[in-house]
């Protein structure tokens, strides 16, 4: 729920302060980024499919984690409608994501709503993050919060971060770090609250934090305290719950879905691109091998490693190499080079996109020229252009 | 002549700009004053960055008070700036009407949509100050937007200037807000101006509104255009992806505010730098690989797929590998492989690839440039290289996908209009501003009478003005010098085609009245040096023409030959590819074409049209950037020197003398067609170029000086016209003139359709008469322009711009691409640059 003035995080240090007032304590990278990195690492480690960020603000955390291939649904919820909207175009897919699409579908949805209200669309998540959220809740909301997040949403994992008031004396003249903070707890208070909640809703909690205290003040602990809650004996999530008691209270502010190889059209295009790329590179190799043959061996200086420069082109594992070598080789007939589909399928990058020669043929038939029997891709050898 | 050259010669397409094909204007940058929406426009295409700097120097502040708007860091749109240049009011003869009269009226559908505003609509401009002052723009915006007074109002705010469509109660409004830190910030909102809807500032605000709307229709902004990445067209064999989209603009046309939309395609390259390097490696072999790689890659702009940023490749570091580590900002060391894995969940497949090096220019000057390493595997190439744009197959494939028939275009437009009208968010946005998105506009144009083509022995009325090659097949050319002493230089590969070609050439020559004797044939080896050597050895003063039959389209052949024969040893030259001469079935038409070109290069005239104005000199001016030295601009000047306007002279300082020589007197009228004027340069043109032209005309004679008119020619303009016929839309007929509704009230301008588009949609050419002493009737001006479009000798048909302009373009293109210096004056009388 805080503002990061500098979107790239280049030069603002301790970037969670609204006004550019020099602070005695600077964090590098800025504290908000350290918090996001913490979540990013968790995602990396636990590979959740569905993540919800409560109090997502301008969705910078979502922006940061969205590139993880394991993710299929990311939801952001915030009570401040203006803020959710502000950066949303940064959540839409980049052009690169159309050119080289992800494996799995990904949707990102931003809702306008409160973290202490129940919305069934947030059921069945693997990870719910509440970064610097609870300190913005008043007593009443704070009391409802565990019941909604742990009791109702009941995700496999919850991450809660909040300021550590033990650290505050190190800041010059600060009572609360933000005017909207209703409270700031010390480590003891946080742990008491968290253990209580965890015990009641059958979660195990670990405490950690980000923002190391400066030398000589180690006793105050991290600047931001983080509790990682994991459901104890969590059964597999029941996806049907969502449908059973559908209550949709949140309002959708933004939603986007990413192109992925799960979408047939996208896969088709990606495969056609990859196939023609491989075929062209084979054609090129074939043409240059002819050229070398023509010139004779007098010109055999092509491997003149200067020691520094090694450029190998694509790298294959032993297994992949074997697979490629075993597959039928490209052959020439007249002016045409024929590359058997089986050969193409042996290349890992093609193989990733389709599992059999038949599917490949079906997918590329209308974009790539095939031999008459449909077993090979046909290219012209004459055209000199690369 | 290759197919590409043919297309260019006809002036149908200039190779599409490297970033986007279709119909975009040479647009400058996304304007920095993105008021109100802090949704940063994410990136810009590869050329854009370089354009900023060039564009900047042309930014002249329009003389009216409105320009104060963007003085804080922002720029006014250059095309909006041009609109502030009111040239018509100085031209008395068109003050009341600039409409022509001749021709048959034709009903046309346009790509313009009306935007309706309430009668008394006004835009209120406020100035906002903060106490204490705040640096951060986003903070300023957030604080102001949190105010209840402003919450349901349509607003646009850039941090200083606030635009509202409704007036606040007070002229000065004091607001106060609290930051998260608990500090109270006072904001003073002061009304500075009330702007009528016709003000250029409003146009800019309207553009911002539409930008927002198109984003709401989930379109993706690149540069100034909007694209739909969800419906891509792929061209796998050339590793290209095309995104369909629109170039849009809002502006005031003759009587009302109109929204115009043009279909545009964004060309993305579906190829990573690593793939490019691999291909290059196979192609060149290891020995010259690193060198070639650097030559091809350094200077290119690449797009990183993980964060969508663009970087310029400044170097390649062959010693750094992805497995090496670097220092992160917090001081810890991490390898590139781990970094990308952790940060973006990307697994690198090739751990031996070298690194691209890019220097990041700091926004602040005091910090030295930071160097970043980029992984080739994660970088996409952007833009089309000159190599790609000269690849005929590639450009053909792109053209096939991007070319839309008028009907197809109309469908896209209708869908866009429908989307804007139906989308709730979009409608809401328009409504809060008081705008109403109206219907597509139709107007009435005129088809001016067709022209007769004058040959030596007959006058013919072509069946189609698009191509009269058949009509004149058996006619004699107006004048042709006979070719007695000439050379053919060829490689041995061309031997078997040469005899057949020569016999065809002589046959077509004799029927045209162009006598071709047998040439001296010199056989050389297949290398640029061998060709060059042969030319040096055999060409002397008596040689009338040198024909080189080139084995390949390699630039070095053409360049060295043209350079030498255009300036060092001025002799007309004709280059032909062996491949062209090997096309058996087309030999006669190829020979005809070559014979015509040769005639022109020897100073002949092919055909003429009737020009009723006596003592008229027409001038074409075009500019082109030098291919090597991008900072250098080549200006081409071509002037007619005879009454029939069939002969031209290229040197500007002596053109009037030449005219005098030929016509025993100075021309009574001079009409200058000026091409190559960028957005926002109109004022400069008026302030510098027109006075210069006037003074050189005045210098030429002491008593009666010639009357001058200057017309700015633009091939890229927003409006498109379609003609409805048999319930489908078609291109308007050749000679269609539009001089109402889609024109601008402050200009003496008109559109003319003078080119045929057999496939795709025709682009009308826009003519803006910015200076006119001659006082010709608009109708005469339009018809003269149309006539001049018939006189380009590289194509037996109409071309998109007047012939002198097209000649000037050819000349500058030759100088900028190949010879890089001024051609010899000895050739100045002939069309040696065809």
From TrEMBL, chain A:
It comes from the Eukaryota. Its cofactor is Mg(2+). Keywords: Magnesium, Metal-binding, Methyltransferase, RNA-binding, RNA-mediated gene silencing, S-adenosyl-L-methionine, Transferase. One of its GO terms (cellular component) is cytoplasm. Pfam families: Methyltransf_23 (PF13489). One of its GO terms (biological process) is piRNA processing. InterPro entries: Hen1, SAM-dependent_MTases_sf. Its EC number is 2.1.1.386. SUPFAM superfamilies: S-adenosyl-L-methionine-dependent methyltransferases. One of its GO terms (molecular function) is metal ion binding. Coiled coil: none annotated. The keyword Methyltransferase applies. It catalyses: small RNA 3'-end nucleotide + S-adenosyl-L-methionine = small RNA 3'-end 2'-O-methylnucleotide + S-adenosyl-L-homocysteine + H(+). Methyltransferase that adds a 2'-O-methyl group at the 3'-end of piRNAs, a class of 24 to 30 nucleotide RNAs that are generated by a Dicer-independent mechanism and are primarily derived from transposons and other repeated sequence elements. This probably protects the 3'-end of piRNAs from uridylation activity and subsequent degradation. Stabilization of piRNAs is essential for gametogenesis. PANTHER family: HEN1, SMALL RNA 2'-O-METHYLTRANSFERASE. Belongs to the methyltransferase superfamily. HEN1 family. This is Small RNA 2'-O-methyltransferase.
């Amino acid at each position: 729920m805080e503002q990061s003035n500098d979107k790239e995080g280049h030069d603002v240090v301790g970037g969670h302060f609204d006004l550019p007032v020099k602070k005695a304590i600077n964090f590098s990278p800025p504290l908000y980024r350290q918090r996001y990195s913490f979540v990013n690492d968790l995602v990396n480690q636990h590979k959740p499919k569905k993540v919800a960020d409560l109090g997502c603000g301008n969705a910078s955390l979502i922006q940061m984690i969205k590139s993880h291939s394991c993710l299929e649904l990311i939801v952001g919820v915030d009570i401040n409608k203006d803020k959710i909207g502000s950066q949303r175009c940064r959540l839409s897919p980049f052009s690169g994501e159309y050119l080289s699409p992800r494996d799995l579908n990904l949707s990102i949805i931003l809702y306008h709503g409160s973290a202490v209200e129940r919305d069934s669309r947030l059921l069945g998540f693997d990870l719910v993050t509440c970064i610097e959220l609870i300190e913005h809740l008043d007593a009443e909301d704070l009391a409802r919060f565990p019941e909604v997040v742990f009791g109702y949403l009941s995700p496999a994992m919850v991450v809660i971060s909040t300021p550590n008031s033990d650290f505050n004396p190190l800041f010059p003249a600060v009572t609360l770090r933000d005017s909207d903070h209703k409270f700031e707890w010390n480590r003891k208070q946080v742990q008491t609250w968290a253990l209580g909640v965890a015990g009641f809703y059958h979660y195990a909690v670990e405490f950690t934090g980000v923002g190391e205290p400066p030398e000589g003040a180690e006793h105050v602990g991290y600047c931001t305290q983080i509790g990682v809650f994991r459901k104890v004996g969590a059964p597999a999530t029941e996806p049907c719950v969502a449908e059973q008691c559908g209550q949709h209270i949140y309002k959708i502010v933004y939603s986007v879905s990413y192109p992925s190889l799960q979408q047939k059209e996208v896969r088709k295009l990606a495969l056609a691109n990859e196939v023609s790329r491989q075929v062209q590179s084979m054609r090129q190799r074939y043409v240059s091998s002819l050229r070398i043959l023509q010139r004779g061996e007098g010109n055999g200086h092509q491997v003149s490693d200067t020691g520094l420069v090694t450029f190998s082109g694509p790298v294959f594992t032993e297994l992949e190499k074997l697979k490629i070598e075993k597959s039928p080789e490209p052959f020439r007939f007249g002016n045409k080079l024929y590359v058997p589909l089986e050969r193409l399928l042996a290349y890992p990058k093609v193989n990733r996109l389709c599992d059999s020669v038949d599917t490949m043929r079906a997918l590329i038939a209308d974009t790539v020229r095939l031999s008459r029997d449909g077993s090979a891709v046909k290219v012209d050898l004459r055209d000199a252009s690369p | 002549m290759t197919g590409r050259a043919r297309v260019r010669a006809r002036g149908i397409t200039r190779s599409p700009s490297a970033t986007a094909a279709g119909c975009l204007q040479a647009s400058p940058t996304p304007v920095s004053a993105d008021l109100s929406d802090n949704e940063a426009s994410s990136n810009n295409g590869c050329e854009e960055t370089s354009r900023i700097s060039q564009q900047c120097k042309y930014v002249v502040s329009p003389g009216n008070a409105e320009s104060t708007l963007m003085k804080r860091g922002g720029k006014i749109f250059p095309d909006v700036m041009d609109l502030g240049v009111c040239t018509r009011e100085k031209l008395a003869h068109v003050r009341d009407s600039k409409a022509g009269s001749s021709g048959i009226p034709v009903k046309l559908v346009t790509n313009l949509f009306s935007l309706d505003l309430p009668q008394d609509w006004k835009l209120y401009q406020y100035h906002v100050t903060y106490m204490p002052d705040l640096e951060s723009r986003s903070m300023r915006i957030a604080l102001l937007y949190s105010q209840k007074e402003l919450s349901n109002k349509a607003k646009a705010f850039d941090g200083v200037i606030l635009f509202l469509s409704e007036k606040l109660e007070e002229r000065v409004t004091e607001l106060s807000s609290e930051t998260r830190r608990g500090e109270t910030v006072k904001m003073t909102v002061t009304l500075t101006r009330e702007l009528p809807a016709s003000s250029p500032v409003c146009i800019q605000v309207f553009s911002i509104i539409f930008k927002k709307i198109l984003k709401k229709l989930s379109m993706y902004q690149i540069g100034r255009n909007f694209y739909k990445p969800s419906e891509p067209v792929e061209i796998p064999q050339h590793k290209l992806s095309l995104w369909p989209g629109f170039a849009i603009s809002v502006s005031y046309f003759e009587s009302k505010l109109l929204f115009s939309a043009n279909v545009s395609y964004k060309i993305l390259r579906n190829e990573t730098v690593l793939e490019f390097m691999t291909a290059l490696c196979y192609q060149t072999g290891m020995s010259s690989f690193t060198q070639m790689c650097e030559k091809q890659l350094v200077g290119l702009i690449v797009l990183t797929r993980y964060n969508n940023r663009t970087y310029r490749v400044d170097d390649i570091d062959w010693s750094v590998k992805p497995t090496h580590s670097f220092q992160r900002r917090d001081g810890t060391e991490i390898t590139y492989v781990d970094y990308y894995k952790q940060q973006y969940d990307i697994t690198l497949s090739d751990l031996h690839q070298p690194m691209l090096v890019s220097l990041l220019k700091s926004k602040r000057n005091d910090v030295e440039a930071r160097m970043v390493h980029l992984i080739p595997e994660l970088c996409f190439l952007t833009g089309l290289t000159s190599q790609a744009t000269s690849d005929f197959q590639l450009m053909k494939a792109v053209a096939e996908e991007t070319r839309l028939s008028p009907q197809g275009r109309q469908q896209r437009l209708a869908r866009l209009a429908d989307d804007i009208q139906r989308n709730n968010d979009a409608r809401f946005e328009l409504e809060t501003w008081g705008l109403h998105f109206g219907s597509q506009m139709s107007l009435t144009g005129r088809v001016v009478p067709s022209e007769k083509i004058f040959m030596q022995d007959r006058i013919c009325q072509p069946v189609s003005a698009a191509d009269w090659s058949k009509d004149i097949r058996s006619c004699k050319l107006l004048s042709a010098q006979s070719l007695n002493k000439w050379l053919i230089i060829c490689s041995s590969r061309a031997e078997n085609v040469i005899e057949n070609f020569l016999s065809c050439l002589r046959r077509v020559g004799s029927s045209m009245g162009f006598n071709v004797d047998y040439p001296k044939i010199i056989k050389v080896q297949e290398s640029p040096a061998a060709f060059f050597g042969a030319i040096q050895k055999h060409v002397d003063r008596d040689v009338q023409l040198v024909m080189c039959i080139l084995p390949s389209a390699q630039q070095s052949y053409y360049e060295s030959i043209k350079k030498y024969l255009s300036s060092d040893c001025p002799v007309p030259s004709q280059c032909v590819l062996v491949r062209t001469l090997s096309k058996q079935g087309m030999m006669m038409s190829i020979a005809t074409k070559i014979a015509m070109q040769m005639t022109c290069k020897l100073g002949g005239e092919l055909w003429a049209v009737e020009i009723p104005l006596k003592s008229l000199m027409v001038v074409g001016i075009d500019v082109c950037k030098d291919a090597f030295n991008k900072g250098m601009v080549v200006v081409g000047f071509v002037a007619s020197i005879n009454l029939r306007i069939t002969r031209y002279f290229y040197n500007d300082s002596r053109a009037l003398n030449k005219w005098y020589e030929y016509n025993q007197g100075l021309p009574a009228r001079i009409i200058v067609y000026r091409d190559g004027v960028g957005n926002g340069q109109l004022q400069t043109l008026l302030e510098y170029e027109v006075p210069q032209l006037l003074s050189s005309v005045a210098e030429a004679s002491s008593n009666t000086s010639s009357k001058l008119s200057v017309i700015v020619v633009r091939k890229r303009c927003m409006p498109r016209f379609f003609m409805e016929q048999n319930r489908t839309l078609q291109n308007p007929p050749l000679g269609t003139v539009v001089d109402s509704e889609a024109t601008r009230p402050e200009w003496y301008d008109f559109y003319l359709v003078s080119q045929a588009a057999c496939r795709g949609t025709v682009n009308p050419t826009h003519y803006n008469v910015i200076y006119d002493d001659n006082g010709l009737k608009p109708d005469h001006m339009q018809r003269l322009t149309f006539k001049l479009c018939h006189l380009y000798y590289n194509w037996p048909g109409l071309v998109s711009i007047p012939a002198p302009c097209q000649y000037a373009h050819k000349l500058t293109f030759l100088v900028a691409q190949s010879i890089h210096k001024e051609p010899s004056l000895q050739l100045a009388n002939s069309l040696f640059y065809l």
